[in-house]
Amino acid sequence: MYDFANRTILVTGASGGIGGAVVRMLVKSGAEVLASGASPEKLTPIVTETGARPLPFDLTSESAVRDALGDIPVWGVVNCAGFGGEIASPADTDIAVFDQAIAVNTRGALLVTKYASRNMIAAGKGGAIVNVSSQAALVGLAGHISYAASKAGLDSITRVSALELGPHGIRVNSVNPTVVMTPMSAFYWGREEIQKPFLDQMPLGRYATEEEIAAPIVFLLSDGAAMISGVCLPIDGGYTSR
What we know:
The chain is α/β, with parallel strands linked by helices. It has helices spanning 17-28, 40-50, 62-69, 95-123, 145-165, 183-189, 192-200, 210-221, and strands spanning 8-11, 32-35, 53-54, 76-79, 127-132, 170-177, 232-235.
């Protein structure tokens, strides 16, 4: 178990499966967790369960992000909020869906990083940021043109942020998970004709659990990862090693 006592960590997408698992692990490790989501109502279950402090805001709005973070002395950030988009080829993609994927997955994470890092620099205590990317940013996945582009952009934000924020003692990393069988993903990845060939190509041969994604995120936030920055870490059962 890691020790996050006296450290305030913001988790966006806290009402989701992975985000909720991260909140639980951080609270158990002594962190003061700011649980963020689009609405207070969606945050109520995880806040009630864990005692995390709710901080709802619209991460597609720069003014909303700026006002929500204010001068809160965050030590860490997990950019976990995400939009799955659609299953479409480049020829058939809906550009409005592409725009939303970029607005949430890429631009939203950058906005949070922009204002949180200002507060982290001002506090002068270093810190850590973990961006939740995807295996779709590392290899070609059919039907994922918008989602993959948004997550590849997030990985670039990770690398540049690690370079720029490192002199302030702030580490920035990404995790790149495989599929977690949530209600959001089941409509596609739960179909036998999709699931079987995909898992046949994965060395470990199964989808991940939410906790199996949350644990490496918490590690990357911890002092145990004090010399790790600028990394995009696959958590994918070996899928991208092919």
